[in-house]
Amino acid sequence: MSQTTPSPTLEQALAERQKNVRQIVDVDEPQIKLVIFRLQDRHFAFHGCRIREVIDGHSEVFYIPGMHESVEGVMNLRGDIQSVLNLNDLLHLPRSDGPAAGRAILLGQGADMLSGIRIDELLDVTDVAQSQLKPPLDSLPAHLKPLVSGLLEYRGLPVVLLDLDLVLHAWQQQLS
After folding, report:
1. Backbone angles phi, psi at 63, to 5 degrees
2. How far is CA 145 from CA 29, 89, 90, 108, 162, in A?
3. CA distance 151 to 97
4. In the chain, domain spans
5. Separation of alpha carbons 23 and 61, rounded Å
6. 3-state SS string over 83-128?
7. What is the C-alpha separation between 78 and 80, in angstroms, rounded?
8. Which of 1, 50, 127, 171 is the most buried (most CB within 10 A)?
9. Which tops the pLDDT comparison, 138 or 11?
């Protein structure tokens, strides 16, 4: 006499299947906040943790005679005097001599200094998945290689991620 095992009920089959299904884990990919901006026709970014504030381009900057040409001047920011730097020379870009309309100043902290950095246009302050960052290419121009910490594509645009500590240190070396 053969014994037949009764077929499982629908509930039993579903319960058994549920035990065998692997648990899908929702893993959040690490994100980095970036401040993406334009200088001339190039696109750059700084880590958001290094930029303390984005200041309207209409803020008055006072020229200081005798300063290095990369220092646009100083500005009064709520009672504190901050230098405003122009990185175009350091990045080997032509000067942005157009009107300040649409331009902005990034108040950045790095290399033991706090300073404003003039940009032509603020494109975005956004979170980017860390996996979107690519290492710097060997084919980067020699003047950029020591300043770049990564590359990424943002809205179809190539963006160079600059290390603000290294940029400000290179700027200080340029003054010497």
Report:
1. -70, 140
2. 27, 15, 12, 21, 10
3. 27
4. 31-175
5. 58
6. EEECCCCCCCCCCCCCCCCCCEEEEEEECCEEEEEEECEEEEEEEE
7. 6
8. 171
9. 138
CB neighbourhood size of 112 (10 A): 9
* CA separation for the pair 22, 2 (Å, rounded): 36
Q: What's the confidence (pLDDT) of residue 152?
A: 97
Q: How would you class 171 by CB atoms within 10 Å of its CB: exposed for 0-12, middle for 13-18, buried for 19 or more? A: buried
For domain 31-175, give its CATH number from 3.50.30.20, 2.40.180.10, 3.20.20.150, 2.40.50.180.
Answer: 2.40.50.180
Q: What is the pLDDT of residues 21-68, one digit of tens each?
A: 555 555 688 999 999 999 999 999 999 999 999 998 888 999 999 999
Identify the residue whose tokens are 């290095």: 68
Give CA separation, 91 vs 44, 57, 94, 118, 139, in Å: 11, 20, 9, 13, 16
Confidence (pTM): 0.80
